[in-house]
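Job type: complex structure
Entries:
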Amino acid sequence: MNLPASSIPISSGGHARERRRLAPLLLCAPLLLLLLALLVWPLTHLLWQSLLPTDAPDSGITLRNYLEIFSVPRYRHALVWSLELSLAVAAGSTLICLAPAWLFTRCQFRGKRLMRGILTLPMTFAGMIVGFLMVILLGRSGFIPQVLERLTGQPLLSGISYQFPGLILAYLYFEIPRATLTLESALRKLDGRLEQAARSLGATRWQTFSLVILPTICPALISAFAVTFSVSLGSFGVLLVLSIRRFTLLPLEIFTQYIAPPTDQGLAAAMSLTLLTVAFGAGFGLRRFARSREVANA
Amino acid sequence: MPRKTGFIFCSTVTIILMIMILLPLVVVVLGSCINASLLGLSTDIWSGSRHEIFDFSAFGYILENYGDWAVFSLELALACVVLCLLIAVPAGYTLVRHPFPGSGLIEELAVLPLSIPGLTLSMGLLAAYGEIRGPLLVMAGHLLYTIPFMVKVVTSTLRSFDVGRLEAAARSLGASFWQRLFLVVLPSLRHAMMTGALLVFAVSWGEFNVSFLLNRGQPQTFPAVLYDTYTNQSIQISSAATTIFLAIVIPAVVAIQWLGGRESVDVEQGA
């Protein structure tokens, strides 16, 4: 029964063998075609578009569009702000969500599934919805400021959703499920007995944490950071609702370029490919790093 | 003792996060039909001149004006589910059970859209197929965005138990390739397909960026209704639209949780 599956003949004859090899390929073909048509081909197109100047498409390939992102202050700021916000949100959500992830993997208690369900709720909310929820909660006449005004007589926290902390809170809102689920699945693979072993060998709590727990959960932290960073970087829906004065993000710049003509196609393409490179590059690089750490630990 | 303090700390943080997630949802859902002053909010900003205690007129307004948008969005989500099942399940099976040169690459490619900003993907689609901008292109965008979920669920489920042994047994009993596929593999994937279908449905229903860029004219998808009401309508009408949105997405997410819980139990038992 331990024979590899492929060594058991279906029937005699080369015809069946030929069909056996063909059938799996046939099953995979629709997916492959879909990916080529809807992913590879469009991205190639976009790359080509980004290399041609919009006003003079016949003048040949140029990197002018990419240089413009870094030379025009508005776009440069948008890129830098996007990076800063995503880094802050990724770091924050990874650290905060360690608590629920640890709770869900290490503890058994009633209502765990309900808690998990609530924390994963915002997973499919578009950023714009989260923006609206923040207005409801912390806008100028939001729920919390109004309740606080009734309690204290002063409009505390009013309109905070239109400031930077509100933005961070909104991004945290939809990163919580992503960070929690990523950390949870990574933590589940860890062996809880290592901690106990370290403790029984006389390690202090700090030693156990810094020498045993931290190195083992490091890959989990990195992959959660990678996921939340790339998602934050591409998101702009929150800012569509909570516009903050003199503040912009790179994806929002691209979106407004596309929505309000005249559209600079080449520039928008270059900006969105820059976004893709950073989001994907960071995610890919960090995940590879995490995997190498995981192997090293094993 | 440290375990206990750890537990208290972690559960406190988790409860704060839960409140942070639930509070605005509760306010929105209640505010869509109850007089805002009962929630301690100012009625002027919330609902204008209306002062009834219960007021469902906002829902009527949404259904009357945006009913066909909601139907379009539901149809789109269901079409995505059907297409994802048809495309990703056979492909996922092949990738796990009959790997061929390049199959690893296809698998990587299939989950790639998840780590690319939706904005970039939809601009790519516009650059390549701009002339068919409209419902068809929205469908393409949604498919691209939902298929990774189905591929992931199917491949990880197939890797979690020894489907090869089941197949070998069926084969030794004389079952052909297609018989094995339909009588052995697909039934054992039933659970994964249900989880995947719900995920695909929820993701498609909640998607905004891709649909908004790729669509032209009306009807738009339901999240575009939300965008429309957020920018043009009173908070009460916006809340009603959000409540309708939640009424569809929350049952799906709850069902995924419920199924997911069972799945992890199954996997643990299998190991």
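Summary: DSSP finds twelve helices and no strands in chain B. The CA atoms of residues 26 and 243 of chain B lie 10 Å apart.
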